[in-house]
Amino acid sequence: MPELPEVEITKRSLSKQILLKKVKSVTIINPKLRYNLTSERLNDLKNKIIIRIKRRSKYILIYFNKKYVLLIHLGMTGRFYFINKYKNKIDTSFYSKKNILQAHDHLKITFNKFDLIYNDIRKFGFIKKINLKDINNTTHLFKLGCEPLTSKFNFIYLKEKIINSKTSIKNLLLNQSVVSGLGNIYVNEVLYLCKINPKRYGYSIKDYEIKNLVKSIKKILKNAIKAGGSTISNYHNSEGKIGSYQSNFKVYGQEGTNCHRSRCGGKIKRIFHSGRSIFFCSSCQT
Question: What is the pTM of this model?
Answer without folding.
Answer: 0.91
